[in-house]
Amino acid sequence: MPQLRHARRLLAVSAAVILAAAAGSLAACQDFGDVTGSIGATGKAPASNAQLRAYADAAQKRYERNAGEKTASIDYARALRALTRYDEAVAVMQTAAIKAPKDEEVLGEYGKALADAGQLAQAKDVLTRAYTPDDPKWDVMSVQGAVADRMGDHAAAMRFYGEALKIAPGEPSVLTNMGLSLALNRQLPEAEQTLRQAVASPKADSRMRGDLALVLALERKYAEAEEVSRADLSPDEAHANVEAIKRMIADSGPLQDLRKPAKAAKQAG
Question: What would the pLDDT profile of 124-136 be if each residue is shown by its tens digit?
């Protein structure tokens, strides 16, 4: 089923992110946990991969009729990002940004696309221009935090997440990014607490639950990890996912290191 395959992919991506970060290679593919916003003017995201592809095709036609137009560009770029066609989304939003270099909404979407594509330095620059102190945007700040994490600046990342949560208290996408940031900093109990807050939200999705399951497995709370995974997977699939994480932990020195508290890890270094 597409939904189950999607959940498995997201869990694998989360594991890869933490593994890559622990190993010091932050250029690996990462899902930034960003809320892309409503895909399209209806406010309803396509319910399946087939519907998403159909929507993307329609958005492409609207975009091609007026390349660079704000709404058409944002709708098409969001669809491309949802399809993980990140470089294409960057190209779409770059055209829009050239036409409207001071439009904060355009710059925000451009920065998110750059972040997804791994162009971190440019994403950092663009995102700083996507809002003003008088009109801060929590979704942009959340992506800024994820970019900072990928660039190795955990303290800056936590500041961005904290500011985003002041604007949008309890927002699960921000809490998810914060939880992964804490995990990357070897603060697993705090990461678990933060991710549990995220998945308690009615807006929580399979990726967020997958991230919580991953952190629970890193804490050796395997039964709880399986329980969380069963929200999106069959019992057999949930068990297989947790077993895969256990093997990854057993085989990987960096993941073993993640289990050490931050203070102990610093002393060991």
Answer: 999 999 999 999 9
**Is the distance from CB of 140 to CB of 133 less than 8 angstroms?**
no
Rounded to 5°, the CA angle 174-17-22 comes to 110
Tokens of 89: 């989304």
Residues with Cβ within 8 Å of 136's Cβ and at least 6 positions away in sequence, in order, are: 163, 167
pLDDT digits (tens, 9 = 90+) for 230-256: 999 999 999 988 888 888 777 765 555
> Are the beta carbons of 190 and 180 closer than 8 angstroms?
no
User: What's residue 3's pLDDT?
Assistant: 38
Write down the mean pLDDT value for the chain.
83
Q: How many CA atoms lie within 13 A of 99 on its CB side?
A: 15
- Domains annotated on the chain, with CATH: 1-31+154-269 (1.25.40), 36-130 (1.25.40.10)
Question: How would DSSP label each residue in the chain?
Answer: -HHHHHHHHHHHHHHHHHHHHHTT-TTS----------SSTTS---SSHHHHHHHHHHHHHHHHHSTT-HHHHHHHHHHHHHTT-HHHHHHHHHHHHHH-TT-HHHHHHHHHHHHHTT-HHHHHHHHHTS-BTTB--HHHHHHHHHHHHHTT-HHHHHHHHHHHHHHSTT-HHHHHHHHHHHHHTT-HHHHHHHHHHHHTSTT--HHHHHHHHHHHHHTT-HHHHHHHHTTTS-HHHHHHHHHHHHHHHHH-HHHHHHTS-HHHHHHH-
Count other C-beta atoms under 10 Å from residue 116's C-beta: 26
